[in-house]
Specification:
The protein is an alpha/beta fold. The chain contains 15 helices and 7 strands. The chain has one domain: Rossmann fold (3-Layer(aba) Sandwich). The longest helix has 26 residues. The two termini are 36 Å apart.
Length: 299
């Protein structure tokens, strides 16, 4: 779905209106694993493949199922791309980022061109300051996620790339959050989450990409894919053990190793350890709350 028009992020009311229109297009509930996997796989693969530009591009790569699937399909399509993974490096004091471990493992398995941005606490501190100033608001979650993304974007820019891929949207259409798990109506919560993406996600990711002159590519928010995914019965989206269940089945169908299909991944700010660093710096700088620390960076 088009988020940028004439160089600017579309208005929130236009985004919400687009989602309301798509919601009305869902005519039936897709039940049965075999049928759902077949339909979702077809529309997902088409959405991703149709989005690929004719030139070299980058993928924000965490080693989670979303970015891994994009890279896997890009490899199968013979595309020229680079994966960028960001995380905290291991030290005597802090454990290294889980996302870096998995990114390296998956890239080695499939021969992806991977560039790792491994940062210490001081390196992360500079990125935290930079991202906070770009976003201009003391939102700890937004900043934490942004800090996990921005170094990869910077690296892509330095490499001369114009396009950078993100797995954004997958959590909403396939039910990947705890609030989906806690909801009485999973698909209704998915629709609510989609409508809230403008203020929660787009004002962060598009702003960071725009700052570097990059175009953000988000294939999980393809219109046809949204309608298809939102037509899938909620029982196929999560069970007692896994979220984004149907996407994991699809990943198996396209040929991804089971080990990677069923990895349980933490959110970007946790998998990269960005949130851990924010907490450490909060204490180091003499603040009680993380929001107070990041607010001090805007002064």
């Amino acid at each position: 779905m088009e988020l940028i028009k004439e160089g600017k992020l579309i208005l929130e009311k236009d985004w919400v209106n687009n989602i309301n229109i798509l919601e009305k297009e869902v005519k039936e509930v897709i039940k049965g694993k075999e049928k759902a996997v077949k339909i979702v796989k077809s529309d997902f693969v088409k959405a991703v493949n149709d989005s690929f530009p004719d030139e070299k591009f980058g993928i924000l790569f965490s080693g989670g199922i979303d970015s891994t699937l994009i890279a896997f399909l890009a490899k199968k399509a013979g595309k020229d791309f680079v994966c960028y993974s960001v995380g905290l490096k291991r030290s005597d004091e802090l454990k290294g980022a889980d996302d870096l471990f998995w990114s390296k493992k998956i890239a080695k398995e499939y021969g992806f061109d991977l560039k790792v941005v491994e940062l210490g606490v001081e390196g992360f501190e500079k990125i935290i300051e930079k991202v906070t100033k770009i976003l201009g608001e003391p939102d700890v979650v937004k900043i934490g996620v942004g800090v996990a993304l921005y170094p990869g974007m910077e690296k892509a820019k330095k490499d001369g790339l114009k396009y950078i891929y993100s797995g954004l949207g997958s959590e909403e259409i396939f039910a990947g959050y705890q609030r989906h798990e806690e909801s009485k109506d999973i698909n209704k919560e998915c629709w609510n989450g989609l409508k809230k993406m403008w203020g929660r996600d787009f004002t962060r990711d598009t702003l960071l990409a725009e700052k570097l002159g990059l175009t953000l590519k988000i294939p999980f928010l393809d219109k046809k894919l949204i309608v298809t995914a939102m037509g899938v019965d909620s029982s196929l989206k999560m069970n007692a053990e896994y979220k984004k269940l149907i996407l994991r089945y699809v990943a198996e169908e396209v040929g991804l190793k089971k080990e990677f299909c069923w990895r349980k991944k933490k959110a970007a700010q946790y998998g990269s350890k960005a949130d851990k660093v924010i907490a450490k710096l909060t204490k180091k700088k003499g603040f009680k709350l993380k929001k107070d620390y990041v607010k001090s960076l805007l002064v």
